[in-house]
Design goal:
Layout: H1 3-9, E1 22-23, H2 35-44, H3 55-65, E2 72-75, H4 78-88, E3 96-99, H5 104-111, E4 117-120, E5 140-144, H6 156-160, E6 168-172, E7 200-205, H7 207-210, E8 218-221, H8 227-232, H9 241-250, H10 253-278, E9 284-285, E10 293-297, H11 301-310, E11 313-314, E12 316-317, E13 328-332, H12 336-353
Parallel strand pairs: 1-11, 3-4, 3-5, 5-6, 6-7
Antiparallel strand pairs: 2-8, 7-8, 9-10, 10-13, 12-13
Helix pairs in contact: 2-9, 3-9, 4-5, 10-12
């Protein structure tokens, strides 16, 4: 692996942020923790003398998704799950990552010695998944849904079409809890509850909606005969006691109901952002955004990003995502007032460059 590839895959939105900047680069909701979540995390601090016990949290997550506890593996953030998969599944034939996509799956595969194939989705098709593009002989496939950085939500049927005996299909649903569809009470297009698809592994994160990036908590859902192989690659006591308390709380009916309300509010804020961007000359929004961020193409994006920094805004560069390039930036969905102020600044920057 060459150094430029390594550096590109290792770049994340937090690298764009510094004190004094309005953060539009990181896709983490920036709100205080609700009491039902903060209180059990705080209470768990009195239990730190004991080693973590994941039993209750695992059962809670399993119940939330209608799974058996043997089909759940808690991880120190969803990012750790990519490492476990890459390490445990060495020797898989022709591993494939569908791009544009979160870069950690490919980085983990490369670090574990895999030769990685890339399937690049097309802007002309709205960055929508075409199952026919994935090679038939691939035994390990990674796809995001909704996909970071494009915010595109693929139909569950298209993702499910990639599952087959002899293949591990990894669906990164780190942002599934940010999606919303009017009249639908659950997360649209999620495969988290599917137990009938061979080799399906679904990754989830509690970072985004609940602002727990620093706590590192996520989980895998998958076949009971596969998860022990992944657990064997995991360090002992990998998930801390406070993180386990958070996992238990976030699997509760109270949490799920709150999550659905937040996703509906975010849908309105996202629609406002997309509507405002449509009025900015030279800006094109990727696909049909469905998550906590929007990717946009515009000329001289690298220079625009730097000028936005000088004017107080941190946005995510897009050229480190395979399948995008130097003309792309990613912007987080925020409240409408923050969006309006950002759009005014972006419009001024682009006008001054004409």
């Amino acid at each position: 692996m060459t150094k430029p590839i390594e550096e590109a895959l290792g770049h994340h939105g937090d690298a764009e942020v510094e004190p004094g900047l309005i953060d539009l680069a990181v896709n983490v909701r920036q709100q205080p923790l609700p009491a039902w979540l903060a209180e059990p995390i705080t209470a768990s601090l009195s239990e730190l003398a004991a080693y973590p016990d994941a039993t209750l949290a695992t059962a809670a997550v399993a119940a939330r998704h209608g799974r058996d506890p043997g089909e759940v593996l808690l991880t120190a953030g969803a990012a750790q799950a990519f490492v476990l998969l890459a390490q445990a599944l060495r020797g898989a034939v022709r591993p494939v990552v569908v791009h544009p996509q979160f870069t950690e799956p490919e980085a983990a595969l490369r670090h574990a010695g895999h030769d990685v194939d890339r399937v690049l989705l097309s802007e002309a098709d709205g960055f929508r998944l075409d199952p026919a593009l994935v090679p038939e002989d691939s035994e390990l496939v990674f796809v995001g849904n909704p996909t970071n950085p494009t915010s595109v939500l693929h139909p569950a049927a298209d993702v499910a079409a990639l599952a087959r005996p002899g293949r591990v299909l990894v669906v990164d649903e780190a942002f599934a809890d940010t999606t919303h569809r009017a009249g639908v009470a659950r997360e649209p297009e999620s495969l988290a509850g599917r137990r009938d698809l061979p080799g399906l592994v679904v990754l989830r994160s509690l970072t985004k909606t609940w602002g727990l990036a620093g706590l590192r908590i996520g989980y895998l859902l998958g076949p009971a005969d596969l998860l022990p192989r992944l657990a064997a690659a995991q360090p002992l006591w990998a998930v801390s006691t406070p993180a386990l308390a958070a996992a238990t709380a976030c699997a509760s009916p109270t949490a799920v109901a709150a999550e659905r309300r937040i996703a509906a509010e975010m849908a309105a804020e996202r629609a406002h952002l997309v509507e405002r961007l449509a009025d900015v000359p030279q800006v094109t929004v990727a696909g049909d955004p469905a998550s906590a961020f929007v990717a946009m193409r515009l000329p001289d994006a690298a220079e625009v990003r730097l000028e936005l920094r000088r004017r107080g805004y941190a946005v995510r560069r897009g050229d480190t995502f395979p399948g995008l390039g130097a003309d792309w930036l990613r912007v987080a969905v925020r409240d409408t007032a923050t969006t309006d102020a950002f759009i005014a600044t972006l419009t001024d920057v682009l006008k001054e460059r004409q």
